[in-house]
Automatic annotation (TrEMBL):
Organism field: Aegilops tauschii subsp. strangulata
Protein name per the record: Autophagy-related protein 9
Phylogenetic placement of the source organism: Eukaryota, Viridiplantae, Streptophyta, Embryophyta, Tracheophyta
Family indicated by similarity: Belongs to the ATG9 family.
Membrane-topology annotation of the record: Multi-pass membrane protein
Function per UniProt: Phospholipid scramblase involved in autophagy. Cycles between the preautophagosomal structure/phagophore assembly site (PAS) and the cytoplasmic vesicle pool and supplies membrane for the growing autophagosome. Lipid scramblase activity plays a key role in preautophagosomal structure/phagophore assembly by distributing the phospholipids that arrive through ATG2 from the cytoplasmic to the luminal leaflet of the bilayer, thereby driving autophagosomal membrane expansion.
Length: 299
């Protein structure tokens, strides 16, 4: 039985270059042995008029429930397992929206409405009594027209608030766009695997994979071959494995100085047979994923 940590944890542990002599990446991945990355057999699903797919179990009828894209399907199953059910997904979404609203309100209040110069000149308590002045009134430090005059710092503040509001709206719409796929994953857990949201809180991922493999014997999720635990794991980790292969081959290594921030371990480059330093910031990782891997593994 095979198991692995969450993808977020993998990306943080594999591609975060600490300033230490040894790292998990240099100790386990940066070797001159070509990585063995499994390529699954991509073929069209057999049509209704074609012959029955090969490798069916003897003595069983063909009860096919083919899934168009198994990679996306298993990724969503794993994400649903990591988030521990629909209730946790909705709770996380509500907290993220409230967090964005709270941040926007704090920025607007403390940087636009509060007059910090007036607060610095207020005299309160004993100091006000000794000077014979009126005790401090904090409401006097609140601006009634916060955008007048509209200076450059206020423009930066308003711009940051607009960016945060846009980010919150994107997350708000993203939740409803992904809600259908989330409900489909929940229905698969409930109806096919017989796992409720309460059970998913304590069940292990290897046990879920075992149930999926047993389900493959009665309902053909994949009609071109019989799924195994290793097939499911390799499909979920397909993009990460290609990225690890690029690191091993020195494709994303550069001839930089070792003291530069972000410089990782050295790997052998194919250019002039020299050893360069691996550097993989989050921006480059996102660009590779968006521009290459998303197109490689689309429908």
């Amino acid at each position: 039985m095979m198991s692995f940590p969450s993808k977020d944890t993998n990306s943080q542990t594999l591609f975060k270059w600490p300033w230490r002599r040894e790292s998990p990446l240099s100790a386990q991945l940066l070797i001159d042995i070509p990585p063995e990355i499994e390529l699954s057999d991509y073929r069209r699903l057999p049509s209704s008029g074609s012959e029955s797919p090969s490798r069916l179990l003897d003595g069983e009828g063909v009860k096919e429930e083919p899934i168009p894209d198994l990679d996306i399907f298993f990724e969503r199953l794993y994400e649903y397992f990591c988030t521990k059910g629909l209730r946790c997904i909705i709770t996380k979404w509500i907290i993220e929206i409230l967090n964005v609203l709270f941040t926007v309100c704090c920025i607007g209040f403390f940087f636009l409405y509060v007059d910090w110069n007036a607060i610095g000149h207020l005299k309160c308590g004993v100091e006000a009594l000794e000077s014979g002045e009126k005790p401090c009134d904090l409401m006097a430090a609140i601006k009634h027209n916060p955008l007048v005059p509209f200076t450059f710092p206020k423009m930066v503040t308003v711009g940051s608030m607009i960016i945060l509001v846009t980010y919150g709206l994107i997350n708000f719409l993203k939740f409803f766009v992904q809600l259908k796929s989330t409900l489909n994953a929940r229905d698969f857990y409930y109806n096919s695997l017989k796992i409720t949201d309460l059970e998913i809180q304590t069940i292990s991922w290897p046990r879920i994979i075992e149930k999926v493999v047993l389900l493959q014997k009665s309902k053909k999720l994949c009609v071109v071959r019989d799924l195994s635990e290793h097939d499911i794991i390799m499909r979920i980790m397909r993009k990460e494995n290609y990225l690890i292969g690029m690191v091993n081959k020195g494709i994303i290594s550069f001839p930089i100085r070792p003291w530069l921030p972000g410089a990782g371990p050295t790997v052998k480059s194919h250019v002039h047979d020299r050893r360069n330093h691996v550097i993989l910031p989050k921006a480059l990782e996102w660009t590779l994923n968006w521009c290459i891997f998303q197109s490689m593994f689309d429908r």
